[in-house]
């Protein structure tokens, strides 16, 4: 008996909190989010119970209107693609064997015999592509709206780390696990690059230990080290987004409406609940898209690796590095990565004016343009040229 009024009071307090957070006192979206409109009905009572026990209403905090447009949900869509990739990865890991003598056979087992193996493997591969493409599009949005400017420079750097991690940690190690010809060549590249890095590359080289071969070590990286780092960086990214709030639009900032790079409370008239709902909706679209692609374009499994040959190109995601490799040898991969990621790291420190519209930031307009043209041209050259032998 004594607990009931306390829970009711807590609910009332939380409702007031979300009204205060909205600044305009209407709490319209908070009510929609919590389903309070249907109080008295069975689903309404169930939802009320969930709210009071979990505090989910706290998600209905105020955000600027533009935060709920697709451009500002691209990061959330990338997040959903990562979640789908993790869930499908857990499924196929039940059937994968990282022993080099059995790895490729186990991938064939996943594709042809395991329960839902082909669909889950396809969803895993395609959601990984969607995550990389989503992260790049999200970064382009942040770049165009100059959201990396003070006070969000550190979050831009965390983002660069996330991009590197999903492209070279998750995606790359995943490619090697297939243990066909392309996978094997990717791993040999990994080892040659490690030797170029000297002491820094030790961990990624074959010589690090004689007790476990490279494939099981890359598997451990793929299923534990990389996901742990990803969780750590995502927590930092999300903390900083919450701490600084979503950046104002370039027009709002240049009109002086956002002192300190943040819209005042009374201008934040939308709800994060809407953002979260849209994110879940787009997440279902990503799942549907990955599932459809899994059926229409199942992930290929090449011939068993032959160490004497070099016959494949990497995944299209790395095409921009393959052409520099043809020009400079394996060093070319390193040069391409250093130039690309080095420029990304420099962005917030090169562009320090308060101007936010892209057309008023000629240096960034030029840098962005040069990068897009260079990446496109390098990718096209790789696509139209025959395979070249790069390895010693
Ligand atoms: C794994 C990849 C990533 C995930 C899951 C992710 C997630 C998010 C989410 C959910 C937001 C909130 C708003 C939005 O969606 O735009 C955001 C904001 C932000 N992200 Fe990312 N992000 C990723 C990669 C990146 C990259 C590659 C960069 C840049 C190099 C970056 C820089 C930023 C910045 C500066 C903000 C604040 C933007 C603002 O306040 O307008 N993120 N991110």
TrEMBL record:
One of its GO terms (biological process) is respiratory electron transport chain. The chain crosses the membrane at residues 70-93, 123-144, 156-177, 219-240, 280-301, 326-350, 362-384. Its EC number is 7.1.1.8. It is an enzyme of class 7 (translocase). The keyword Transmembrane helix applies. GO terms for cellular component: membrane. It catalyses: a quinol + 2 Fe(III)-[cytochrome c](out) = a quinone + 2 Fe(II)-[cytochrome c](out) + 2 H(+)(out). GO terms for molecular function: oxidoreductase activity; quinol-cytochrome-c reductase activity. The keyword Mitochondrion does not apply. Residues 1-40 are annotated as: Disordered. Pfam families: Cytochrome_B. Keywords: Membrane, Transmembrane, Transmembrane helix. It comes from the Bacteria. Residues 10-22 have a biased composition (Basic and acidic residues). Residues 46-250 form the Cytochrome b/b6 N-terminal region profile domain. Signal peptide: none annotated. Its cofactor is heme. InterPro entries: Cyt_b/b6_C_sf, Cyt_b/b6_N, Cytb/b6-like_sf, Di-haem_cyt_TM. This is Cytochrome bc1 complex cytochrome b subunit.
């Amino acid at each position: 008996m004594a607990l009931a009024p306390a829970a009711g009071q807590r609910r009332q307090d939380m409702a007031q909190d979300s009204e205060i957070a909205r600044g305009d006192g209407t709490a319209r979206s908070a009510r929609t989010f919590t389903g309070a409109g249907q109080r008295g009905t069975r689903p309404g009572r169930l939802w009320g119970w969930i709210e009071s026990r979990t505090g989910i209403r706290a998600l209905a905090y105020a955000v600027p209107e533009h935060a709920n447009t697709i451009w500002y949900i691209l990061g959330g869509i990338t997040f959903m693609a990562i979640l789908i990739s993790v869930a499908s990865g857990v499924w196929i890991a039940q059937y994968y064997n990282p022993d080099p003598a059995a790895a490729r056979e186990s991938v064939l087992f996943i594709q042809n015999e395991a329960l839902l193996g082909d669909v889950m493997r396809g969803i895993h591969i395609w959601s990984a592509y969607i995550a990389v493409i989503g992260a790049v599009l999200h970064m382009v949005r942040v770049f165009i709206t100059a959201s990396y400017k003070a006070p969000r420079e550190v979050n831009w750097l965390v983002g660069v780390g996330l991009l590197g991690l999903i492209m070279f940690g998750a995606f790359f190690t995943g490619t090697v696990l297939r243990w066909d010809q392309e996978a094997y060549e990717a791993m040999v590249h990994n080892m040659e690059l490690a030797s170029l890095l000297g002491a820094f590359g030790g961990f990624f080289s074959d010589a690090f230990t004689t007790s476990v071969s490279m494939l099981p070590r890359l598997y451990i990286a793929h299923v534990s080290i990389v996901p742990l780092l990803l969780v750590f960086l995502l927590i930092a990214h999300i903390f900083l987004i919450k701490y600084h709030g979503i950046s104002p639009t370039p027009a709002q900032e240049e009109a002086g409406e956002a002192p300190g790079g943040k819209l005042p409370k009374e201008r934040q008239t939308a709800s994060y609940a809407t953002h979260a709902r849209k994110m879940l909706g787009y997440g279902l679209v990503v799942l549907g898209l990955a599932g459809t692609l899994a059926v229409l374009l199942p992930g290929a499994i090449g011939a068993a690796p032959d160490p004497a040959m070099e016959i494949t190109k990497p995944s299209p995601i790395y095409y921009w590095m393959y052409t520099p490799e043809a020009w400079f040898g394996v060093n070319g991969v390193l040069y391409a990565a250093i130039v690309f990621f080095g420029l990304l790291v420099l962005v917030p420190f090169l562009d320090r004016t308060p101007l936010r519209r892209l057309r008023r930031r000629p240096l960034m307009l030029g840098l962005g343009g040069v990068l897009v043209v260079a990446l496109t041209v390098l990718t096209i050259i790789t696509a139209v040229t025959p395979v070249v032998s790069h390895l010693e």
